[in-house]
Amino acid sequence: MITAKHILQKPPLTHETLTDVTDLSLWAGQMLLQHGADSQRIEETVHHIGTGLGCDWLDILVSPNALIITANSGGEFRTKVRRVTRLGVNLAIIDSINDLSRRIDHGLVDRVYIRAEMERISKTPALYNRWLIVGMIGLSCAAFCRLFGAELPVTLVTFFAAAAATFFRQEMIKRHLNPYVTVMGTAFVAGVIASTATLLKIGAQPHLALAASVLLLVPGVPLINAAEDLLFGHSVTGIVRGLTGALIALCIALGLLLAMGLMGVSGL
Predict the structure, then answer these.
(1) Is 265 helix (H, G, I), strand (E, B) or coil?
(2) Rounded to two decimals, what is the model's pTM?
(3) Average model confidence (pLDDT) across the chain
(4) What single string gives the DSSP state of each residue in 197-258?
């Protein structure tokens, strides 16, 4: 929350200092936008960082794939834009930047430390081994399949389908392919493997494997952020994020449709 203390007049920053503060604030906002933060969180965090480092005020414009900041100190302005080319979800990075912004807001760190910390955060490795992720996602989809009422053999098919699809998705992401093509291809792989339950007539409800094996692709974060952005008045970003979620859902459906057509199964 932006409080009255942030608008009190402060000693003006030098040209170099104001430029550096603007760069640091913009860098933090870029990482937040890139890793799945909602627009309100981005605005508040960037504002806290900029004012905590001596700016009188910051105006922040969050768009679906870019961030614009105007920093003001002693009547002097700096406006910078930074584009985000890849969007994803990494809540660990968001949490680290939020924690850093609170320390900045309380005056506990200087710009040298902040830049080093931002560099460290930007290079944060994955928290979990890729094979652990493959196994856990396969297990979670299998658990949903079981909750839907499937028998154990169908649940096992779902596990292997979701695990193989997750591995395929990791490889597609590593090659920086189009995200919508990645979603469609992942749904196709999951659908092909899950279709074996229907072809081999495993269990009484083999079609549940098809439905559960693609749950790893459900665009939960974009849809939640879209709702939050719309509620807080970030209409353009909210609409775009909602459309992104809808396109991801469409790609999931197309991938499954292609898989079912190839395998000759129906009745999902």
Answers:
(1) coil
(2) 0.85
(3) 91
(4) HHHTT-SS-THHHHHHHTGGG--HHHHHHHHHHHHTT-HHHHHHHHHHHHHHHHHHHHHHHH
